[in-house]
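Observation: inputs received (chain + C2E).
Thought: call the complex predictor directly.
Action: predict_structure
Action Input:
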Amino acid sequence: MPVKKAHPEADDPHGDAAAAEAGVGNGTAADDSDLAERESRWNYALVGSSLGVWDHNYRLDRKYYSETWKTMRGMAPDEEAAGDYDAWLQLVHPDDRDFVVHAIDRQNAGDPDYQIFEYRERHRDGRWIWIECRGACVEWDEAGVPTRIVGTDTDITARKQAEETLSRLSRRLDLALDISRIGVFEADIEENMVEWDERLMAIYGLKGISRRNAGEIWAKSLHPDDRERVLGLVDRSVASGSNFQQEYRIIRGDGTERIIRASSAYFIDGNGRRKVVGANWDVTEEVALRNELQRAKDLAEARNRELEAAKASIEHLALHDYLTGLPNRRYLDKMLDERSVECRAKGLALAILHIDLDRFKQINDTLGHRAGDAMLRHVAGVLRNSVRAADFVARIGGDEFVILCAVDAASKKVVGLAERVIRELRKPVRYEGHDCRFGASVGIAVDSGPELDAKQMLLDADIALYRAKGLGRNRFEFFSASDRRDIVSAKQLADEILIGLERNEFVPFYQLQFDARTLDVTGVETLARWQHPAHGLLTPDRFLDIAEDLDVVSTIDALILEKALADRKAWLADGLPVPKISVNVSARRLADPDLGKKLRALKIPPGTISFELLESISLDDCDEAVTANLKKLRKLGIDIQIDDFGTGHASIVSLLRLSPKTLKIDKELIRMLPQSAEQRKLVGSIIDIGRSLDILVIAEGVETADHIRILEELDCDMLQGYALARPIPAMQIPSFIRAGSWRHGENAARIARAELRRALTGRAAK
Ligand code: C2E
Ligand code: CA
Ligand code: CA
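Observation:
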């Protein structure tokens, strides 16, 4: 601090600083050296302590400023300090200026309160430095006015900054604690004293806790159920000097229960005292939320488990047959892939047994579905018991089952298994007092090697099954490659049939029918032929079964009828009235509910067309559609003819209900006529029945003159057969009839008969 111009007239910048600082005057030489030593000691001490010394002597009007005083302000050590009070005051921080003026006055006045004060002054480099100014009056004039004031300035900028930082930090901490509602305590373990802050008391709902009994109050606040545990933990952490972290319940001053999270740290303070500083905060909401989340999570997990179970059961349902509990078709498909892979990998053969129950339908039909279900369950049990654990049994349809097993390629096990299954399933099963008997046919496919294709094998097993059934049931058959060839060609033929229908390749051939006595033409039977582009003319035995599978026989029947009607017209135009045309009608067509409508559309002249119905498709239990159609046929003037008569098992009575116009005796019965008297008797009685019921009788398969003769003798009405005419295309009919060549056959018969008679009479004459 420069001098205040209290006595400007006494201004003397050349004062004796050392003397002033040492506070001593002149003396002897010994005194001098003593003095110098003391002075230098002082100087060093002052420099070392960073104190800048100033000395204002108003009486002598001298001002002195030490080097440190100058350097702390950024002045050079040898720079002259002007000592101009006003100029100096400009360097004081504007906010401090009034205070400094006042403080200097008070210091000069010897006010002990102002012996030390702090203020800011501008450093030469422009920044503010904090200065702590200490001063004291050392001399007064007679009137008691201070005449000399001596003091020190200390640069306390660093300390001020530290203080500022500290207060900023503590402000920040306070704010943080305030915002996060964290209460803080500090405990002195030796003294058994605890200091709580306001927030901690608020958390516990307590007011004014004395340092002496805070610990006790805290222990009382603990929830009784938690108290022992928490106090134990605290004791242990104090004893071991370790940190403490806990969550516990308290009962607040107002009686409410809260959950507190506590965290505390153990330390030893500067005085070597063991202390604990800690923080508590209320986590009731947080814990509630956490519990809520946990509950939700538990719930979700439980639901997940339920879903998993539901999913598993849905999957099980999707892959199993509800009735027998066996895997179903879908499961089998999956398994086929798995087992192929497995067999390929292990070098094993895969065997597929396709099992189909025989006569199962009868059980269903006669004893009802419950009996059927019971049988299926029984079968499932038998199959399960017949296989090894590693084998796979599935029910893939109504009464169809499949077994998959991996076997050694050379093993005969499969045969054993098939035999066992057939044997077991043959045994009668008791159901509600009935012995149910059925059986099983088994088709087997076995394959191995890298090309193994289980899906194909399943088809193969099916083909083999088909053959087993065809060969008489209750047996097993292995698949053979020729089976597959047959199937493949049938498949090809099926495709070709459909194409042939589109291309109009199906045509009627006509086989003439004759009066047995006169051999006049009485009618024709239409017979379907397929003009195949590659194989030539095909007869029904080549395509009818497949057409049946394709469900197109009705279509063929219809188109044959249409063409026959057209041909009939053409023959008429040609002057050749053919009395009657008979067409073969399949069972499917006869059951077609639209048959009547379709026939009406054809505008068939009544009495010109006859429908040949197979005896087997008639009649014992024909359904309503068939009965209705038969009625319509009669209304439309279409005759009904029973085809292949004598081969079926239809009762005469049921045949009569159809009121047929004609019975056609099957060619099997005709063939043996010459050789078999029994056959002759049978055919004779059929003819008699027809006669008595007013039904015409026609014989088919008339191949020889003998046939013609015998049938004439038996009084048959009409004849059809190769002996008289073969099936021929429509265009050949007129010329055939005009040529009348079949009558040569008649002649031949007559000659034969005459010969026979001659031989007999000749023998008799002998
Ligand atoms: P089906 O109705 O019993 O026809 C008679 C079959 O015997 C015909 O064979 C005919 O060619 C043959 N046949 C004629 N005379 C003789 C003979 O003296 N000896 C021998 N052994 N056979 C003779 P096809 O034409 O091969 O017909 C076979 C079967 O196909 C027919 O038997 C019939 O059931 C069926 N069919 C033929 N055409 C049709 C049709 O348009 N619709 C339907 N649904 N079935 C047809
Ligand atoms: Ca026929
Ligand atoms: Ca026939």
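Thought: report the result.
Final Answer: The two ends are 190 Å apart (CA to CA). The domain at 15-157 is CATH 3.30.450.20 (Beta-Lactamase).
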